[in-house]
Write a structure and sequence with these properties.
Order of helices and strands: HHH
Strand content: under 5%
CATH architecture of one domain: Orthogonal Bundle
Shape: elongated
Helix content: 40-55%
């Protein structure tokens, strides 16, 4: 795929960027390098490579998520300035 200054200008316009002429030339070169590298990657034969989720082992160091009741409602409501014994009372916003 050939990248031109017109392509770079279109991308800059979509990103709402103002590009000077010398920066547009620089981006053309950089985009060509990136596309060239991606073409090399696409040319590789990966049919014998198994797909990976991640190159490293994914082991969870977290505890299992099991629900448990650690506090009583009355204890939680005790620190509230306004409550009705079952719910917190907060000012109406609307």
């Amino acid at each position: 795929m050939e990248i031109t200054k017109k392509d770079v200008a279109g991308i800059a316009d979509l990103a709402r960027l103002e590009l000077k002429e010398e920066m547009a030339e620089k981006f053309v070169t950089q985009f060509r390098d990136i596309i060239g590298y991606m073409d090399k990657m696409n040319a590789l034969d990966t049919s014998h490579v198994s797909p990976l989720y991640s190159p490293s082992e994914n082991t969870s160091v977290m505890r299992p998520d099991t629900p448990k009741k650690e506090y009583q409602r009355r204890d939680l409501l005790a620190g509230s300035p306004d409550q009705d014994g079952q719910y917190l009372i907060v000012p109406r916003i609307l």
